[in-house]
């Protein structure tokens, strides 16, 4: 038979006891940490992980492929397959639109395995990671003008250029040259677009610098004539006659059929640049 007076006496302490037990249980969770996620690659070989990751990649399951490759790359840093982990991981990052990680991983491969037989592919892929297809360049409004978008394409051009210099016999050489040509022309087009914007704002020194940049860095682009014409107009506006004459002579020697070499345009050199401005605006 229960002693009711005793239970009634202990009742105020039961809540305190319950709180104490609960706090002990919760502190145990903190002691042992959060439950760890099950690692499906645990205890498996490097080749098994590579094969499984390729299976996931083939079905476009990039989340799984990346998880497996990251685990393998951490666990087998000195394996014969260590270079393959890095190459495959860089590719998976790119396909999953994790561009910074893709660039970092391909650069890690280049630093860690300088004599690897796939080094030409690594340099090629470094350019591909940053390469943007057609459609990236739209007709920009004056408010859109910025150097931020062009930086990535410049890095891509430089990476592909490095491949063509270091590996002139690579099977990726021809495709790299084609991509460089596209990039060179689009970067030059962008620079001159910005130069025309500066011309409309009468910022002739800034426009001149953009045109000179195209001449000096992308001298095989299809926009050389426009760059020279812009330079002539800038020098005319700035009153720098000797450099204007030199630039005009280069224009006439390289483009003897240029429409800006006619007598009726001689007195309008300040406005020569407007020919292209009328095409794009």
The outline comes out as elongated
- Share of helix, binned: 55-70%
SSE order, one letter for each helix or strand: HHHHHHHHHHHH
CATH topology of the domain at 43-116: Serine Threonine Protein Phosphatase 5, Tetratricopeptide repeat
Kindly, what is the distance between the CA atoms of the first and last residues, rounded to a whole number of angstroms?
Answer: 100 Å
Taken as a percent bin, the fraction of beta residues is under 5%
Structural class: mainly alpha
The CATH architecture classification of the domain at 43-116 is Alpha Horseshoe
Main sheet: strands, sense, barrel: none
Number of strands: 0
**CATH class membership of the domain at 43-116:** Mainly Alpha
Overview in brief:
The protein is built from twelve helices and no strands.
Task: Walk me through this protein's architecture.
The termini are far apart. 69% of the residues lie in helices and 0% in strands. The chain has 281 residues and is mainly α. α10 runs antiparallel to α11 (241-254). It contains twelve helices and no strands. The protein has a domain at 43-116: Serine Threonine Protein Phosphatase 5, Tetratricopeptide repeat, CATH 1.25.40.
Topology at a glance:
Elements (H helix, E strand, L loop, with lengths): L3 H29 L13 H13 L3 H14 L6 H14 L3 H14 L6 H12 L17 H19 L6 H28 L3 H14 L6 H15 L2 H14 L19 H7 L1
Helix pairs in contact: 2-3, 3-4, 4-5, 5-6, 6-7, 7-8, 8-9, 8-10, 9-10, 10-11
């Amino acid at each position: 038979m229960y002693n009711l007076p005793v239970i009634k006496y202990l009742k105020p302490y039961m809540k305190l006891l319950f709180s104490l037990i609960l706090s002990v249980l919760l502190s145990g969770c903190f002691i042992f940490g959060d439950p760890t996620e099950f690692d499906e690659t645990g205890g498996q070989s490097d080749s098994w992980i590579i094969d499984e990751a390729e299976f996931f990649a083939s079905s476009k399951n990039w989340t799984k492929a990346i998880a497996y490759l990251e685990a393998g790359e951490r666990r087998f840093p000195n394996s014969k397959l260590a270079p393959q982990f890095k190459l495959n991981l860089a590719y998976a990052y790119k396909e999953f639109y994790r561009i910074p990680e893709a660039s970092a991983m391909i650069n890690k491969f280049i630093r860690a395995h300088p004599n690897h037989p796939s080094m030409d592919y690594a340099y090629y892929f470094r350019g591909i990671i940053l390469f943007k297809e057609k459609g990236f360049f739209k007709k920009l409004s004056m408010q859109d003008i910025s150097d931020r978008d062009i930086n990535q394409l410049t890095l891509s051009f430089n990476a592909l250029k490095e491949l063509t210099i270091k590996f002139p016999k690579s099977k990726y050489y021809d495709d790299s040259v084609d991509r460089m040509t596209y990039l060179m022309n689009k970067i030059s087009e962008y620079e001159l677009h910005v130069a025309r914007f500066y011309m409309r704002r009468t910022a002739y020194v800034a426009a001149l610098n953009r045109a000179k940049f195209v001449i000096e860095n992308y001298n095989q682009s299809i926009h050389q004539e426009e760059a020279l014409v812009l330079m002539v107009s800038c020098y005319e506006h700035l009153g720098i006659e000797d450099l204007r004459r030199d630039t005009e002579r280069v224009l006439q020697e390289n483009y003897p059929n240029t429409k800006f070499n006619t007598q009726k345009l001689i007195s309008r050199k300040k406005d020569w640049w407007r020919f292209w401005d009328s095409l794009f605006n």
